[in-house]
Write a structure and sequence with these properties.
Two copies of one chain form a homodimer.
Chain A lengths: L9 H13 L6 H12 L4 E2 H9 L7 H13 L3 E4 L7 E4 L7 E5 L5 E4 L2 H13 L3 E12 L1 H5 L2
Parallel strand pairs in A: 4-6
Antiparallel strand pairs in A: 1-3, 2-3, 4-5
Helix pairs in contact in A: 2-3, 2-4, 3-4
The first copy, chain A, binds a DNA duplex (25 and 25 nucleotides) through α2 and α4.
Chain lengths: 152, 152
DNA sequence: TTGAATGCAAAGTTTTTGCAAAAGC
DNA sequence: GCTTTTGCAAAAACTTTGCATTCAA
């Protein structure tokens, strides 16, 4: 059981509990610390960033453990892993029933999330026409944000 | 100068010539062989695949040279590099004025290209609303193709 | 002849794995 | 007590780099 603060992410911990139980896996201190910190950091966190952040705190899990934990969450379908084209991949919480895409500033690397139902609908349409059964998609728009476009 | 077959890709070689001239770079036998083979292979080729293919022929460029050549084409904006989430990245020819997105089968890893102007238009709209000046985008739909969906 | 391209091996990055020790249940 | 998790270091997988040699113009 988890005995630490987890406000706002109850659903996350609940689904994790379910997944661990179903898979006959265990909770652990490190796991919980890593996940707690992950949930509190900005979205789109790389394994390395999460690891560094944890090192500034009392906890010093190995980098391998951070990777293993993130992979566990991925298996549990609780996080999504993305390749924002910069080599290392980032993770983000997958909230049930919600989906968003990303606008990425090529200058300051800021990431803005957006949702557009019309685009989603058209994607389904395209997939259907080509006989695909969609399970997920990934849409990234690259450009320059309003702040950075001035400095060009 | 290039003195080998290059049917259907004249624009590609022309733009390459321009780029090399502008950047004061040179042509070379290896470069030309690599590019020729790249242009004749299926789209979405990884460096490793291209390297293996070349080895089955008379030419044995080093893997590093294949990477260097693909990076050159990327700098020349003649190819696009994509991370299809499977670790290694693939390259594809960027035809001027054309753009397409991808449907990827999670079972057989087949990649199907599609174009949808309506989606492109909506992307522009979203970007504009959020103050972004778009330079490119990447849309991937993941699912199961009509062949594979039967076997599930 | 001079700068660029190549090949090879070594190094770099990001991520995974093996194994003995520690922890969870 | 039996199984999973951890930490560390080693290995993997993909890509880039250094350097001496070869090649292009």
């Amino acid at each position: 059981m988890v005995d630490t603060v987890k406000v706002g992410h109850e659903w996350f911990w609940e689904r994790l509990d379910q997944y661990l139980a179903k898979s006959q896996l265990k909770h652990s201190k490190q796991r919980n610390f890593i996940i707690e910190e992950f949930l509190q950091m900005k979205t789109h966190v790389s394994a390395e960033e999460l690891y560094s952040q944890l090192k500034t705190m009392d906890h010093n899990p190995g980098l391998a453990t951070v990777y293993r934990t993130l992979n566990l969450l991925k298996d549990a379908a609780l996080v999504d892993q993305k390749q924002f084209s910069d080599g290392k991949s980032v993770f983000e919480v997958m909230e049930p029933g919600s989906h968003h895409d990303h606008l990425i500033c090529l200058t300051c690397h800021k990431v803005i999330e957006f949702e557009n139902e019309e685009i989603e609908r058209l994607q389904e349409q395209v997939a259907k026409k080509l006989g695909f059964k969609l399970t997920k998609h990934s849409l990234e728009l690259f450009g320059h944000c309003s702040d950075c476009v001035k400095t060009l």
